[in-house]
Specification:
52% helix, single chain, 0% strand
Length: 216
């Protein structure tokens, strides 16, 4: 899959004629309905030459899915995942930046997402969906400043590949609502957050980290 592959035409965030109203988001599947799929079995990493960011997003989603569902340390999860794939250095680096960017800013990311989707508590949103949303907002607003159109398009591709039938429309609608108002987004990025963190893991990925040998 390349970033030029054909996908259904998406609504363009910021265009009032195409934007779905914030109160017209599609209904979600029942909590957990999407989360019994085998993400590792579904994820086949193709040759990443020429599509490094696309592959990094796929791998980041898988890593975040495992961390979100098991609470395994991020360093261990990333080390194990990288050992399973032959990746270009940039793909590996971009994956690390995305995963660390999401986990280091998860409270703020979740606050931004929850603000425009208040009727859908994130705990009830499928693990795949909420991590696709986190990756997209992080990639645009916290690392690299990736253009909105690319961020939304790539997020919907992940939802098409790994989510349910309603996931692409849900992801597109939430991201469209988030990115439609840059002033509000900037204010949410600068707002004071509560002291309690949802994710507390000081084990950032280190190239020198290796999982312990169970035989020793």
């Amino acid at each position: 899959m390349t970033e030029q592959d054909d996908f259904p035409t998406l609504q363009q965030p910021g265009d009032p004629d195409n934007m779905e109203p914030e109160d017209d988001l599609p209904p979600l599947p029942r909590p957990g309905e999407l989360d019994d799929i085998d993400i590792e079995a579904e994820l086949v990493i193709p040759d990443d030459v020429g599509q490094e960011r696309t592959i990094a997003r796929m791998l980041s989603m898988q890593i975040l899915y495992e961390i979100d569902s098991t609470e395994h340390p991020r360093g261990e999860v990333m080390t194990n995942q990288f050992s399973n794939h032959s990746l270009q250095p940039f793909t590996r680096e971009y994956t690390v930046n995305l995963v660390n960017g999401v986990l280091d800013n998860i409270d703020r990311l979740d606050m931004i997402i929850q603000t425009v989707a208040q009727e859908f508590p994130l705990d009830s949103v499928a693990i795949v969906d909420r991590n696709i949303l986190r990756i997209a907002v992080c990639e645009h607003s916290f690392i690299g400043g990736m253009p909105v159109g690319i961020v939304v398009d790539e997020a919907v591709k992940l939802a098409v590949q790994f989510g349910s039938d309603v996931a692409p429309r849900f992801v597109n609608g939430v991201l469209g609502a988030i990115f439609s108002n840059e002033v509000r987004l900037k204010a949410m990025m600068e707002a004071e957050l509560p002291d309690d963190d949802e994710y507390d893991d000081d084990d950032e990925y280190d190239d020198e980290f290796e999982p312990e040998d169970e035989d020793e």
